[in-house]
Write a structure and sequence with these properties.
Layout (H helix, E strand, L loop, with lengths): L6 E4 L34 E3 L16 H4 L6
Parallel strand pairs: 1-2
Length: 73
């Protein structure tokens, strides 16, 4: 019987930047980048991710996050 919630294999802390996360976050797939988790074929699992801005857009209903986003880091 499958668990009610799939296993979390890549957790993130939304208060931390990608480079500060416990596990290294990948921005692409490449053979020279080692995996951070293993799963079985057919296994259901969860992966948490930061948004494309690296967490620069906050959940605060302010458009200032978008206006002032740094697209160069």
């Amino acid at each position: 019987m499958a668990p009610s919630t799939p296993r979390l294999v890549v957790p993130i802390d939304p208060k931390k930047k990608p480079r500060e996360q416990k596990l290294p976050l990948h921005n692409r797939w490449h053979p020279s980048i080692p995996p951070v988790a293993d799963v079985m074929t057919g296994e259901l699992f969860r992966v948490e991710m930061v948004d494309w801005t690296g967490g620069s857009i906050g959940d605060n209903d302010s458009a200032m996050d978008v206006k002032n986003i740094d697209l160069f880091t």
